[in-house]
Amino acid sequence: MITGAVLGDRDGIGGAAPLDAVERRQLDIVRRWGTVGALLLAAGSLGAGAAPVLSPLPGTPVLGLFARMPSATLAVAWTGIFMIVSAWLWLGRFARPGRPRLVSRSQMDRTLMMWITPLVFVLPMFSRDVYSYLAQSQIAANGQDPYELGPATALGVDNVLTQNVPTIWRETPAPYGPLFLALGRVISAVTGDHVLPGVFLHRMLALVGLAMIVWALPRLAVRFGVPEVSALWLGAANPLVLFHLVVGVHNEALAIGLMLVGIEVALRRLPVHNPGDPLTRDELLWVALGAALITLGAMVKLPAALALGFLGIIVARRRGGRLRDLLSVAVFMLVVAVVVTVATCFGTGLGFGWTETLNTAGTVKSWMSPPTALGFLGGGLGLLLGLGNHTDSTIALGRLIGQAVYVVIVGSLLWKAFRGRIKAVNGLGAGLGAVLVLGPVLQPWYLLWAALPLATAVLAKRFRLVATAGSAIIAVVLPPTGAAFDGRAYVLPQAVLGAVLVFAVCLFVARKHVGPLIRKDPLPGAA
Questions:
Q1: Domain count, the chain
Q2: Engineering a disulfide at 45: which of 7, 49, 251, 521 sits with its beta carbon 3.0 to 4.6 angstroms away?
Q3: How far is CA 261 from the centre of its chain?
Q4: Where does the sequence pass through the membrane (predicted)?
């Protein structure tokens, strides 16, 4: 899907020379290494993926064997993960900002295609959220209100779609925006109760979002002084994108894609060299269109709305950077956002019920969220000191403190961006990171909200090193099953040990080819 105009054959390498003959051979090895990893991950999904409850695979000849060998199949999947992550790290050597020779845009695009293609047809992995998408979309397709009813109530506990939803979410209403559920309603009208076709079409929707990301990242990078292939490498080729947006089928792909495209569209006609001049009608139309796209992204997942504030800062500074410019632009952005939101809510027929279900995810008390973890710690201390169990209260307090802190952080970033102390897109990335890290729930793929905007504007070696290491570590430590191993926890260590041994053997067999990649600058940003 990501072809043609989206993945063109442009060699925009920011003035750097193309790779030499030796490096092109090494790039070919990296491509094949990552592609083999993607194929192994696809094979592993047959037994280690988040398969539907009534999966046809166990009774299928040959393919059914994977589900009967959980440890071996999980080891295959994890070996694929190791190979993809290592290939990404090696690819980063050829996309590092400041390098005299960089991979070309067309070479980066072909690499992305080679790695993504095997992942298009895999079973969901790393999460079971797509099954919630299917159930909530079917509720909407039935003419019921997905913001009032959960799958168990609306569809029945025996419904095949309900059975695939994790137990904790079967009674909860949808926390997603009306645009996403309207698109899901179309998918449900086509697939009905057929789970696997529904998953596939939702993945196609995620790939549309990824195509938007691939289109917007290099264009924004050029605007903010980053080589486009460096932005694509840290952004679109990031293992967290491949694993959680493509394989995991998360709707962040569509929301972030609309947000980034909206920013790029809004900036296409803005004057750069003559700040202070009034904006023409044509320029205002492009800004309005960009703001509308960002608002549509928020109608998928609300965090995209933060981009309106930082886009407004850019426009206000281009108009002259006065407080009255900021105020007038803020009113303009607010009007666009309100019009698009109202039109979406009424146009989809789903109304404004989504505003009452935004805290649905907060019903889960996960230690991965720092404020929630702080609340658990406070509750534990209370028990230890004999003060009683006040864990719920301390979690609520911790979350309230987290919200207050991220409001202050976002406000500070907006002001600094307005005063020109930081790039607005950097402020957007940092602000989204603060909102999601300090929010009531934190999932690994939430980090992409911050990483993708920052990939377009940050050249600092320290940031890119931290982002690289963080992405690689998170990518390899998360089990690909999307499920717990209650009663059979031994499967995980067996699978990891097997994957490590197989990966080590692969490195040994291919040592003549991958040796130079390992010895020379494997981490981008390293000195």
A1: 1
A2: 49
A3: 15
A4: 33-54, 74-91, 112-127, 200-217, 229-250, 284-314, 326-352, 372-388, 400-418, 430-451, 463-485, 491-510
